[in-house]
Design goal:
Strand content: 15-25%
């Protein structure tokens, strides 16, 4: 019994000594505080340095478009040509809006044939030069109708999604880098190292439009025995460019394709088209308006680029015509000839 008490006393003494040496069990470790200068410790943050300031990331430049809004219910504002023609012989000065000729009523039961095609009107062709008449350019009329919110603009030729004027200006604008001279340097003594690249916004203008794409239906009216075209929509064609690297280290703008920023319904544009005159190279006294020029008399030259098909592709995008431009033009002429032959075969002679 005496030996057991001695052993317990020794174990208790050992535990107390260890506790005094290493600290108590369950206690948090406190930072070491030495009694002398040699025992002082210093905490160092490895991730931070006093000589290197924090770098703030620069914001990526973006295109900012001011609010325009839509004005579908406002009175349309067309680009008017100065009316210097004799009022006695210019019938358009008297009738005004009444010159809008409504299409004859077409009963759907009388439509025995319908074919939808897409065609491109190239304004650089000689027959289409009247479209760029400086006194009343049709490019300005269609551009301002969409970008000023005067009529509804659509994202595609299905006319199932309306886009705003702000969206049109945003998708047609681009960012470009131009060299800018550093301030304080004389331009006559500047070298290549004295210029820095600056990002600017390049806006697309109506004067840059060289093509229009028209979507139309060719229908056969069984009641009147007439094969006639009806223009459904029109869209400007915008060329797309990229900066292609050159062997000398510079870059050059190269055209990589074309796009259509928006589509307009022709029926929405017709009231405005009747208020803009078209240049008549034969007689200044008898000028037509744009609605008569495009929809009634169809005084323009064009070529077919697409028809309704199972794959819904343009002719130039089809496998058999993708790398053959001549075959693409021949296929376009074949589509036009097929419509002519179809109408011709409806009659007996």
């Amino acid at each position: 019994m005496m030996i057991r008490k001695i052993c317990l006393t020794l174990l208790l003494g050992s535990a107390l000594s260890l506790n005094a040496q290493w600290g108590g069990w369950g206690e948090d470790e406190a930072p070491a505080k030495g009694k002398g200068k040699g025992n002082e410790t210093q905490t160092v943050d490895v991730g931070a340095t006093a000589s290197k300031p924090a770098v703030t990331p620069t914001a990526k430049p973006k295109i900012v478009i001011e609010a325009i809004g839509t004005h579908y219910d406002d009175a349309p504002k067309a680009h008017f040509e100065p009316e210097y023609v004799n009022a006695d012989t210019n019938i358009s000065l008297y009738h005004g809006d009444s010159l809008l000729i409504s299409r004859p009523y077409l009963r759907q039961a009388d439509v025995k044939f319908r074919k939808r095609i897409w065609r491109v009107v190239d304004l650089r062709q000689k027959m289409n030069k009247s479209w760029t008449w400086p006194r009343s350019p049709i490019t300005q009329v269609f551009w301002e109708l969409a970008t000023k919110g005067l009529v509804r603009a659509y994202a595609n030729d299905s006319f199932n999604r309306v886009i705003t004027p702000e969206q049109i200006l945003e998708i047609t604008s681009s960012l470009d880098k131009v060299p800018v001279l550093v301030s304080g340097v004389d331009a006559s003594e500047a070298t290549g190292d004295d210029y820095v690249d600056s990002t600017i916004v390049v806006s697309f203008k109506w004067s840059d439009i060289n093509k229009f794409e028209i979507m139309e239906d060719w229908v056969f009216d069984f009641k009147h025995g007439e094969m006639k075209p009806i223009i459904i929509g029109i869209a400007p064609v915008k060329p797309e460019f990229i900066d292609a690297a050159q062997p000398d280290g510079t870059s050059k703008k190269e055209m990589v394709g074309e796009s259509k920023p928006y589509w307009l319904k022709m029926d929405d544009c017709r009231p405005t088209l009747t208020k803009s005159q078209v240049f008549n190279r034969y007689n200044d006294a008898m000028r037509l308006n744009w609605d008569q020029h495009i929809n009634l008399h169809r005084l323009f030259d064009s070529y077919v680029v697409k028809k309704t098909d199972w794959d819904d592709l343009y002719i130039s995008s089809k496998t058999e015509f993708k790398d053959d431009k001549v075959a693409t033009l021949l296929e376009a002429e074949k589509i036009k000839n097929d419509l002519f032959v179809f109408e011709h075969d409806l009659w007996e002679y």
